[in-house]
Amino acid sequence: MPRSPIIGGNWKCNGSMEANATLVEMLNGAEVPANTSVVVAPAGLHVLTVKDGLKNASVEVATQNVHTTKGAFTGELNPAMVADAGIKWTLLGHSERRHVFGETDAGLTEKVTTCMGAGLSVIFCIGELLADREAGKTNDVCATQLDALIAGKPDWAKIVIAYEPVWAIGTGVVASPEQAQEAHAFCRSYLAEKVSKEVADDMRIQYGGSVSAKNCQELAACADIDGFLVGGASLKPEFADIIKAFVGVSGYD
Questions:
Q1: Which pTM value belongs to this model?
Q2: Does residue 94 carry a catalytic annotation?
Q3: Beta pairing partners, 229
Q4: For the chain, which domains are there?
Q5: How many CB atoms lie within 10 A of CB 195?
């Protein structure tokens, strides 16, 4: 069976009650192809309000992060709390969490394990810095970060991988279709080698990094790109067009 596209929207530290209501209205009216999933990740303060406002059954909500602990850890959300609130998804390993807040591969392994115990599905973010790309280390970085995911022994049916070259996030510089496809193909081959061909064939791998309505269809045509994790454009009306990027793409209809 072909992989079904999944479009994610990471709203990051943006939004207000009024702005989010406008986005929810847009999502409720969005035409979501029958084979496409949509998951949006509002700021933590807004997750339940957005969830309650969404009436489009094809659109789900995620938290942007979780922590493995509970109890005396001020400011954190643990996976059990997220699941208890009826939220089925979380993002893990976004480059801002890794490179600004210092999250480690070992810590992400622990988070994956904890999320699986709570029954959450995870969008697991990987990707290289510009210095890594220029040094020819893209595959090495992706392999190391995938190793952290593999070590968490996840339920692979609950995992989506988002390849996001850090040098393309929020910069307006998008990886070329050839660059993106090469990285996605490597990730799929690495999963086949380290886990199984079945897991690799079924894995949905998103591309993230300055995705827009203007470039999404060209990226969607790449054989190993199965969706997008969208930042800034997910806060704009054009996100409705990105949701439909895979319509007509061979292998997805």
A1: 0.96
A2: yes
A3: 8
A4: 6-243 (3.20.20.70)
A5: 16
